[in-house]
Design goal:
13% strand, single chain, alpha/beta
């Protein structure tokens, strides 16, 4: 910024900033202010390092329709915590305002207008700068999620949104290598495409599945081969690395890459050099690598099934995608995106209880199993609501594990069983407290949390007869009592620590 004074006139010129100035001077323009007093100009911080790192958390929204409201609500709450009460309005991106200070564009083709509701000091401008920087990041995440939705991918759960944010951040940092881990069918290929788009490089996106090629062919598929390099080779083979020059190479199922090819990939990652089969000269390519695997590469490295040095080279930016069973919001979002008949949303055809059944199912096949389930439901063309019994039957047809609720309901627990469990908990409490019984509210809470609940969980989940927690399938135990696996692990650990063999 350049500022100079001529008499009562002060000239303020933007000399090439990226975002303009907080006195509403457009980038590269100049304005003139008339004043007889001192003029104070506060420059907004230009990076996160220059400002208070306290910013709102990433917001949750279902789509374009509620994005602006979610952003406005998060900013309003955040400004209130900083004792900067404000009024935030949402206006059209084309709306003309008399004062542009505090106006922040959104990716949803709307703008936010932030106005203080009382007199503020210089800290207001710093807060506006932080808000603008935070909104820019939310806009990037919105665009990323929106592009994935356009491709039919689901981004609704906090876990998936965190994965998207990690991919966006890696691309913004110019990462040369990205490793995406998670079970098959959770959306790793969609995240790989997102990384390529966010990089904005000129080259193509080239995908190869390392499990699809034999040990003999995988080298030539990745790095190419000269004519006559092996029996039956009648022409030069252009490898995936060469094809992806100035773009992105997606190596799916990297854990299946033969061990003798791994050093060649490591050399390429380190130096950008590779050697075609049958050639004695080295070639170069400028490629970004996205590797995906459903294997535990740490364990494979420790067991000498995967090169340790390659693991360390790949693990600079790691994005872990959890299984669908841990992302119930994504299950519901997918159901809302489908129609059971033309003009009839799939969720409208579900009887009470079906959503709970589906969000608590194990989904061993992840999205492939979910898509399979929906397609079978549509093919049935059931009249009226899809009942809980029918949904359980359809789910069981394609599931590797029994669905929650698909098995016959458990027989009611007899009164004497409840009495026996309660007595067992009380006796254990007395043993641990010198024979005393609960006499205070704290004692009662201790009895319930550390004695009664673990017994009830173990008995109702049919885990009480096991030798220890290592012999229990926590997923199945959790499903039997409609709990999450974290709760199952905590309660069963308490049970076996106090009541186990």
């Amino acid at each position: 910024m350049r500022v100079h004074r001529e008499g009562d006139l002060i000239h303020i010129a933007d000399v090439g900033s990226r975002n303009g100035t907080w006195v509403a001077v457009p980038s590269g323009a100049e304005v003139t202010a008339r004043t007889r007093d001192e003029l104070s100009i506060h420059l907004a911080p230009t990076s996160a390092d220059d400002a208070d790192s306290d910013e709102p958390s990433d917001v949750s929204f279902s789509g374009r329709s509620d994005y602006a409201r979610a952003i406005a609500g998060a900013l309003e709450s955040w400004l209130a915590t900083k004792e900067l009460p404000s009024r935030i309005s949402i206006v059209s991106a084309n709306a003309e305002l008399s004062d542009e200070v505090g106006r922040i564009p959104l990716a949803s083709s709307e703008d936010l207008v932030i106005e203080p509701t009382r007199t503020v000091g210089p800290g207001w401008l710093t807060a506006l700068a932080q808000a603008e920087r935070w909104v820019r990041r939310q806009n990037v995440l919105f665009d990323a999620e929106d592009s994935m939705r356009v491709e039919g991918l689901i981004v609704a759960s906090p876990a998936m949104r965190r994965a998207v944010a990690r991919v966006v951040d890696a691309a913004a940092a110019g990462a040369r290598v990205l490793l995406i881990t998670g079970p098959s069918g959770v959306g790793k290929d969609g995240l790989a495409n997102l990384f390529h788009r966010r990089l904005g490089r000129a080259g193509p996106f080239v995908a190869r599945n390392c499990a699809m090629f034999s040990k003999e062919l995988v080298r030539s598929e990745l790095f190419g081969a000269e004519k006559g390099a092996f029996t039956g080779s009648v022409q030069r083979i252009v490898g995936a690395v060469e094809m992806a020059n100035e773009g992105t190479l997606f190596l799916d199922e990297l854990g299946e890459l033969p061990r003798d090819v791994q050093p060649m990939l490591l050399r390429f990652l380190d130096h950008g050099e590779y050697e075609r089969l049958g050639s004695y000269g080295r070639a170069r390519a400028d490629v970004r690598i996205v590797a995906a695997t459903n294997r535990d590469l740490r364990k494979a490295s420790l067991e000498n099934e995967f090169r340790t040095d390659l693991w360390f080279r790949l693990s600079v930016h790691v994005v872990e995608v959890p299984p669908l069973a841990e992302r119930p919001e994504d299950v519901v979002a997918y159901l809302r995106s489908r129609e059971i008949a033309k003009g009839q949303p799939f969720v409208d055809a579900l009887a009470p209880g079906v959503i709970d059944l589906l969000t608590q199912h194990a989904w061993a096949g992840n999205f492939r199993e979910l898509v399979n389930f929906v397609e079978r439901c549509i093919s049935r063309k059931t009249r009226g609501a899809l009942t809980l019994e029918t949904a359980a039957e359809i789910l069981r047809e394609g599931a590797l594990q029994p669905a929650v609720g698909a098995s016959p309901p458990r027989s009611p627990v007899a009164t004497d069983e409840w009495t026996a469990w309660a007595l067992r908990a009380r006796e254990a409490f007395a043993e641990d407290h010198d024979g005393a019984f609960p006499q205070t509210w704290d004692h009662i809470k201790d009895l319930v949390e550390n004695y009664l609940k673990p017994i009830l969980f173990a008995e109702l989940s049919a885990a009480s007869g096991s030798k220890g927690i290592d012999d229990v399938d926590l997923r199945v135990a959790a499903e039997r009592v409609r709990a999450d696996r974290g709760t199952a692990a905590k309660q069963l650990r308490r049970f076996f620590d106090r009541f186990g063999p």
